[in-house]
Amino acid sequence: MANKEQEENPLADLYVDASEDRERIRDAISGLIGIDTETAKPVLREKFSSSTSKKQFTALLLYRRALLSLDELEEDETVGQDSTYFADLIGVDDSTIRHAATDLDFVVNDDEQGGYLIPPHKTQQATKWLNSGEED
After folding, report:
1. What element of type H or E holds 47?
2. Within 13 Å and on the Cβ side, how many CA atoms surround 50?
3. CA-CA distance, 106 to 127, in Å (whole number)?
4. Counting Cβ atoms within 10 Å, is residue 109 exposed (0-12), middle (13-18) or buried (19+)?
């Protein structure tokens, strides 16, 4: 949109830079999870293993959001996943994931989106919590 139009249109103030959320996600999970260049599967780093299961769950949810932003999800794949997906990666019971999802107010369970996910409007809250010293 041209600058002149932005100055004349009060709705132009609604434009936002989506790269801010992508940078937040990158900064939040870069020490915890990498993305395999060939398969796009998560590469769990040492810091991931020493984190609590809630922090691990949050990092994996943000990883899923990163895959969406990078256009790395398969055509039939959704950003959300069920509790088994996360439980298998973390090495906990499904019930641990369900309890964590209930405790973390930035996580939603949306069947249409495939299961547990962090909606775009909750990304900042999730990255702040992940980077905080707060454990549970």
Report:
1. helix 46-49
2. 4
3. 10
4. middle
| pLDDT score of 31 | 93
Q: What is the mean pLDDT for each group of 10 consecutive residues in the chain (136 residues)?
A: 65 76 93 96 96 97 95 91 97 97 96 95 95 75
Q: Which residue in 92, 89, 129 sits closest to 107, CA to CA?
A: 129
Task: Using CB atoms within 10 Å of the CB of residue 127, give its burial: 0 to 12 exposed, 13 to 18 middle, 19+ buried.
Answer: buried
Q: Which of 117, 113, 112 is nearest to 86 (CA)?
A: 117
SS3 content of the chain, % helix, strand, coil (to 5): 55, 10, 35
Looking at residue 10, what is its pLDDT? 84
C-alpha separations of 24 from 49, 109, 126 in Å = 21, 22, 10
- Full-model pTM: 0.86
